[in-house]
Amino acid sequence: MRYFFHIAYQGQYFSGWQRQPGVKSVQEVIEQTLSKIFKTTIPIIGCGRTDAHVHASQFFFHADFEKEIEFDLLFILNKALPYNIAVFDIIKMEGKPHARFDAVQRKYDYFLHTYKDPFLSTQSSLYQEANLDLHKMKAAVNLLTKYKDYKAFCTHPNKYDHTKCNVMEADLFVNAKGDRIRFNIASNRFLGKMIRIIMGQLIKVGKGELSVDEFESHFISLEIGNIIAPAHPTGLYLSKVTYPYLNLEPRTDLLSMIEGAHWISI
């Protein structure tokens, strides 16, 4: 019996989703919890990977069980998991759908603020840059849906069969005061640290250290240069995962959670 689990987690105290030796991962914590409940090893497969300290307001994983679950696993699992991991739904699936390979779209949101605020420190990335040129940043964002090869925006492009991504949506938002920024992007797939590298380059555009034409040249040359500066992980959220057979709205209202901002498209 295959089940999909609809979850969310705060990533600041984890070294990413994927199990890795010697560090604490979301996958490991959930697998250990499930194994204690079922008294046997329960491996799980996630819908993707998130970097260390990156959050997910919507995430799916699948797990196989020998027989149908006939007790309130949702309640028991949420009681056993730490406060920063929540399970919203456990869905019995027909056949063998795959949480990672079957996903057709993933959306991410990146939040940054330009003034120090202790209540935003675990939700949004701090960049004390008071005069970012948001219009130039938006011009660079508008280029993202026009190109397919994101080789220049990846830490290890050679590990992939190809580096093409179908970026379907990309937008930049700001609050009324201009000191809170949200970057939104949706694609069929993402490469290693791709969003954080894009965001790092967008910040350089906003600071005047990189022109919009130079930003676009990354897509043409497929090179980003010797210095790759990914944006901080804290403000990054995997916020929506869509399947041909499953399209649930996120349980967490991310835009309300990052409170105090009425987001305006630039």
From TrEMBL:
Gene: truA
Binding site for substrate: 108
Originating organism: Pedobacter jamesrossensis
Pseudouridine synthase I TruA alpha/beta domain segment(s): 148-244
Protein name per Swiss-Prot or TrEMBL: tRNA pseudouridine synthase A
Family: Belongs to the tRNA pseudouridine synthase TruA family.
Pfam families: PseudoU_synth_1
MF (Gene Ontology): tRNA pseudouridine(38-40) synthase activity
InterPro entries: PsdUridine_synth_cat_dom_sf, PsdUridine_synth_TruA, PsdUridine_synth_TruA_a/b_dom, PsdUridine_synth_TruA_C, TruA/RsuA/RluB/E/F_N
